[in-house]
Amino acid sequence: MRRSRKVKILATIGPASSSEEMLQKLFEAGADVFRINMSHTDHELMRTLVGRIRAVEEKVGRPIGILADLQGPKLRVGKFANGKEVLTAGQTFTLDNNPEPGNSTRVYLPHPEILSSVEAGHRLLIDDGKLELKALKSDGKSITCTVVAGTTISDKKGVSLPDTDLPVGALTEKDRKDLDAVLAASVDWVALSFVQRPEDLAEARKIARGRALIMAKIEKPQAVARLAEIIELSDALMVARGDLGVEMPLEAVPGIQKQITRAARRAGKPVVVATQMLESMITAPVPTRAEVSDVSIAVFEGADAIMLSAESAAGAYPVEAVAMMNRIATKVETDPTYAGIINAQRSEPEATGADAISLAAREIAETLKLSAIITYTASGTTGLRAARERPQVPIIALSPILNTARRLSLLWGTHCVVSPDAIDLDDMVDRACRIAFEEGFGQPGDRVIITAGVPLRTPGSTNMLRIAYVGSDAQVSRNIG
């Protein structure tokens, strides 16, 4: 099944979409990668979902990626004697280490790392920012605050700390257990929540040992401030606009989204735009005009993937939501302004032979109006470089490794095919041309451009370009390197 768009769709699985039948419908509607939210999924259910996705993969004959999203630190206040309290702007309110039920003047905060890190002037946002407190003083055992905005606080509401750098990693004990479980289940990507600093990625990478790629979710101002360092240590980024919009001013989020997307593109790292993209389709069969525009902006920016959360996980119209996102993306990519916008954001390649080959492949393909760029890739690096160029023609990534093809299913413009290694250069060209024809990317007489490494089966050695005719023995070749 060939997609008619380049941006990929990431669909979250939940109660509305967890059956094998529904997963297949979502794939057929346009989903390329499935997300399992470990905040709401135990290990047994996770393994069941992975098994169902792999069953669908076998039926449709296409590599399907799986992203496991770790919960991350969940910071919450304790309980109240009355369940909730009504506060008044300007009053004093205290968060402390006393486990007794709270009242209108105080509540238990079971997180000593917050009590020891918050300083006077820092903001504390409760219940997704519905209540804003400002710290007046802190002694390591309690934080005395003034109520800035909002009126109600109730049991177990979340706490966000936009001004405070907490001395804890992004992995909790639950996350470590979940990470071990999802790695054992052979998921392709692991998303790390509430990353603050590049060091937060180190533990996850050490545990993963290459068995899955690590995606950093950017949802805290501390991560935005150290974005370049986080990109360096991550395999991909997610613009997690939900918590980002709580911890930073809402009006700043669109600009930050563009900043993150463009930085990831420059680095050649996949980037996902997520949260509330078609939120109204949780309960309605069509989205709002504003939501359509929101999805379109992410596509125009050249994001690798756009994500559905509750729309596909718990909504009343999961298939319709995926189909709508598919239609929006397809329409945007055929807009007359799309190519110009994508090209204007293109960055200079790095000074390496492989990057120069990828640049040359795009320029030749576009100049000669070739049918496709075909890359042989074992690790996926060549596919990443090809996608970084955002070519106007499709990219076919051929890999002998199924896990590599699954990982690349998240990548912009990349059609992944699992194929045995070529025996020699002639077999490489013949195989590429045959697959281009079989997968619907070329007809006899069309031309494609092939990139590979010589000698064959040498990782990271991309050094050759070759132009070939589909379905013909007449071949025009150009070798570089």
Automatic annotation (TrEMBL):
Keyword DNA-binding among UniProt keywords: no
Per UniProt, which keywords does this protein have?
A: ATP-binding, Glycolysis, Kinase, Magnesium, Metal-binding, Nucleotide-binding, Pyruvate, Transferase
UniProt pathway: Carbohydrate degradation; glycolysis; pyruvate from D-glyceraldehyde 3-phosphate: step 5/5
Which residue intervals define the domain Pyruvate kinase C-terminal in the entry?
Answer: 355-467
Catalytic activity, EC: 2.7.1.40
Give the GO molecular function terms.
kinase activity; pyruvate kinase activity
Catalytic reaction annotation: pyruvate + ATP = phosphoenolpyruvate + ADP + H(+)
Which InterPro entries does the UniProt entry name for this protein?
Pyr_Knase, Pyrv/PenolPyrv_kinase-like_dom, Pyrv_kinase-like_dom_sf, Pyrv_Knase-like_insert_dom_sf, Pyrv_Knase_AS, Pyrv_Knase_brl, Pyrv_Knase_C, Pyrv_Knase_C_sf
The protein's enzyme class: transferase
The record's annotation in SUPFAM superfamilies points to: Phosphoenolpyruvate/pyruvate domain, PK beta-barrel domain-like, PK C-terminal domain-like
Record has Metal-binding as a keyword: yes
The protein's required cofactor(s) are namely: K(+)
Domain named Pyruvate kinase barrel: residues:
5-322
**Domain of life of the organism encoding this protein:** Bacteria
Q: Which PANTHER family match?
A: PYRUVATE KINASE
Similarity-based family: Belongs to the pyruvate kinase family.
What protein name is recorded for this chain? Pyruvate kinase
Q: List the gene name.
A: pyk
